[in-house]
Amino acid sequence: MGTIWITADTYALRKLNLTKSPEANINFVSEIRIYQELTPPAEGAGLPKVTRVTVAIKPSDNQAGIMANFNTINSNFERNHERNIAFYDNALDTAPNASQLPKDYFDKNRPDSLSLADQTSLAVLDSVRELPSVRSVLDLADVLVNGYKRVGRLELGPILSTYGFNDIEGHRLRFGFRTTPELSRDWLVRAYAAYGFGDGRLKYGMRVNRIIERQHWTVLGAEYRHDLDQVALLDNEFGQENPLFDAAARIGRIRGSRPLMRDVSGLSLQTDIVRGFIQKVIVRHQRFTPLYNFAYYNTDRRVPGAPTAANITLSELILESRYAHDEVLVETENRRRAIGLMRWPVFIFRYTLGANHLLGSDFKYQKFAFITTQSVQVGIFGRADYRVEAGYIPSTVPYPILKTHMGNQSPFYNASAFNLMRYFEFVSDRYASVRVEDHFEGLLVNSLPLLRKLNWRLLATGNVLFGGVSEANRSLTPPRHPDTDEPLQTFRALDHGPYAEVGYGVENIFKVARVDFIHRLTYRDLPEARNFGVKLSLQFRL
What does the alpha-carbon distance between residue 122 and residue 135 come to, in Å, rounded to a whole number? Predict the structure, then answer.
């Protein structure tokens, strides 16, 4: 709602002054004002000369109000210079030296000057930021969003992983940190040490990244890690980080998830080949020491009494390509974050080559994995997020190297997992899956007066997974352990059709909470199968 100005003779748009309707269901925001002034018709087609946006959060009894002003002034327009349409379809880039500009840069380069009121506001903001009460709120927000607590030139965390308890380690204490730009803008170091009082083992790890060049974000990395892991959670091929889920997955009974000690060392190099296309190369060496009853045939003879082994050593070359045509990337401190897409989906392809007899490696194999994601508007039905994933492993390898589909036995919803699937419930060497989340925004709920005041929003989810395992990979596990003669734990494949689950839920509860109600549609008769579940999560959405 608002006012627009149009010339009487040419009907050209000259100016507009708009504000948010009070009926709009937008989190936190109480006011949005947009003022825009266009160039005169005599100069040609109207172009935005001045744009002012004001976003305000109304104060309440227990929180301060916030008002943000964004002013954009365009000048030196270049008209009648025809360009390819792709030129205008590029997303914004952050200049490599954006965080190192001198304090007086904008005073010298802005086309207008700050008013006295603006100068006073900036001075007040600088002083308010240092107040203890404000600093406490900012620090708390940083911990909730990033999971780390700033202490001097270091950040301690992830906070959620500091303490855990499970049936292998007993009480587990973990201390970790990462460096900040105050220590170095070009080096990022993450390190941690953990100790399990039940198993008496010390675990540790370190990752070092060196930013070689910022324009194309060329980063060299090195990593070493010695820690307890689970076969059920090994296959995180695309680096999806979920600190809440990771912490919850180490709590409680994890023996059924096939625990093992994992030693990982690797080198990586990534760079932007062209805008939107990221290429990553990883050289990795791994050793798995199972902490459960496990063995596999290590010769071509796969009959009772044939030679077997338990530990697994791997040497791998990984090539990962990621293409996001119009993704907006922002450099924050010494990390780079993606903050959104305009129209196009993201495509990721990963190829893994295992080299036999290299540094003690036990297997030669190949893996192919593909994923695409996108968020699209679906009219009155809000916004839908979909994720399509597929993979193929043509080689014969023990099941810890195959694709273990990620289940979720924690009470927290995980968009990257099948939320009613148990840990290590299904394994595949060829698979395809589709996941869809539809956020209805204010549809239906806005029509009910009582619910409308709560600003709740409805959503729906659906996950379908197809998969299978070759007979060669099934027969690689002997029926009984060669030393103890006990029956060996094996794995389950999707032999009776796809796995499917659907859900519905409510988000925007207290503006940050979300509750999902999920139903399992297939494989409902399996032992310990959960056919209905309720999952919680926290998210920040406007």
Answer: 17
- For every residue of 359-390, DSSP letters joined together read TT----EEEEEEEEEEEEE-GGG-EEEEEEEE
Question: How far is residue 30's CA from residue 56's CA, in Å, rounded to a whole number?
Answer: 6
Amino acid at 483: D
Q: What is the pLDDT of residues 423-453, one digit of tens each?
A: 999 999 999 999 999 998 777 776 677 667 7
Q: Using CA atoms, how far apart are residues 277 and 517, in angstroms rounded to an integer? A: 37
Question: What residue spans of 341-484 are helical by DSSP H?
Answer: 449-452, 471-474
Dist. CA 490–CA 180, nearest whole Å: 45
**In sequence order, which residues have a C-beta less than 8 Å from that of residue 112 and are 6 or more positions away?**
73
Query: What pLDDT was estimated at residue 93?
Result: 65
Contact 98, 75 (CB under 8 A): no
**Hunting for tokens 């010339």 — which residue is that?**
7
Helix axes 132-146, 116-129, angle to 10 degrees: 80
Q: How far apart are CA 29 and CA 20, in angstroms?
A: 10
Alpha carbon separation from 220 to 93, 111, 209, 235, 270 (Å, rounded): 22, 40, 6, 23, 7
pTM score of the predicted model? 0.83
Entry field: residues in the chain: 542
Which residue intervals of 487-542 are DSSP H helices?
none
* Residue 171 identity (one-letter amino acid): H
| DSSP run (H or E) holding 105 | helix 105-109
Among 267, 308, 316, 315, smallest CA distance to 290 is for 308
Alpha-helical (H) ranges within 200-314 are 243-248
Contact indicator for 494, 426 with CB cutoff of 8 Å: yes
- Write out the two tokens for 105: 């840069």
Distances in whole angstroms, Cα of residue 205 to Cα of each of 223, 248, 286 = 8, 20, 14
- Taken in order 23, 26, 27, 30, is the CA torsion positive or negative? negative
What does DSSP assign to residue 140?
A: H
Contact predicate 489/294, CB 8 Å? yes
Question: How many alpha carbons fall within 13 Å on the CB side of residue 253?
Answer: 5
Q: Are 494 and 468 in contact (CB under 8 A)?
A: yes
Q: How far apart are CA 87 and CA 107, in angstroms?
A: 30
Mean pLDDT of 452-466: 89
Q: Where are the beta strands (DSSP E) in 378-522?
A: 383-392, 403-404, 427-428, 430-439, 457-468, 499-509, 513-520
Q: Which residues pair with 330 in a beta bridge?
A: 337
Q: Tell me the C-alpha distance between 189 and 179, whole Å.
A: 6
Q: Which tokens hold the place of 532?
A: 């209905």
Summarize pLDDT for 198-232 with one digit per residue, the tens. Answer: 999 999 999 999 999 988 999 999 999 999 999 98
**How far, CA to CA in Å, does 400 sit from each of 76, 139, 231, 424, 473?**
61, 41, 6, 10, 11
> Residue 108 belongs to what H/E stretch?
helix 105-109
